[in-house]
Design goal:
The chain is an alpha/beta fold and about 350 residues long. The chain has 14 helices and 13 strands.
Amino acid sequence: MRIVIIADSIDTQNAGIHVYTRNMIKFLEKLSGHEIFCIRLKNGSDIRFKNDVFVPGIIPFIKKDPFRIFFSIPHAIQKLIPDIVIEPAHFGPFNLPRKIKRITIIHDLTPIMFPHWHNKYSRILQKIFLPSILKRASLVITNSNNTTKDLIEEYPDTKGKSFRIYPGVDPFFRLSESDFCEQKEPFFLTIGTIEPRKNLITLLKAYQQFRENSNLNYKLVICGGKGWKSDIFYRELEEHPYRKDIDFKGYVDKKVLKRLYSSTTAFIYPSLYEGFGFPVLEALSCGAPCIISNTSSLPEVGGQTAIYFDPQKPEDLASRLIELTSSNKLVNDLSLKGLRQSARFSWENFARELEMFLLELK
């Protein structure tokens, strides 16, 4: 089977969709009997696949070059004569003959359900094009039951061709039970792009309440690149009464992140909505006790191994922090349970499930 994957996110992102696309390609390539071609934006990345096809942009300084999306990429795809085309970033594929099967992957519907979390350009593009993308798709893959539910509620015509396949954890982050660090360091950790959906203002408030109601001087470590509508976060950070104990690291590489995951007393994920939640899965696989929002898909990832809180209530998160830091046994129990929970999510399983759908489409 000849499969084309539109892999722009490999070259343009470094967060969730990048991780998803990179591992999807890596593990599909391990399956025998398929030719995988990857449409790429830039030549020069350290990440390379067996059959990279570079399609450069035509219009400079535009993130979504319309000429490239609607003409250059379809032209390159048709020359490859594929059986199936996969778009991992849910914007496409476009302008292909009907005989070529199309798979669109939906990670979340935040531009549609929560437009105020996104910039105007993104909202308009999604609202205009997503209905036709979904209509033309032969198959729609989602990454959680919650995303499938949201998709069918917003676009009822996708019922019957929308299916959930859980992603896996990056093997780089997977620790065995004999490897994880039992002696945790006195700090809390969070990671995510600095944007409203990640709900970091609630975290800052909860951290203040924890410090005011506990005699423990735990630090707070925040990792993440700057996103949209983030000015209020930076202002609240600088004005925080415990600013000297908050280590804002910005974007960090995988090696640093793995060390932080494996040594933190608690990984905190206060997000208001997630299509899946890769950071939670990474933290679990490194033996980090997790305190996460009780919303959207996050309970699917955390299962029975995380502590949950209402992301609208800083006091709820603060009380969970006090609860966890009061019991070394609870910390160690959550660490071991998290390792076992994360083992349920593997890219090998993802690739095999996806292959079954691909074979049915052919």
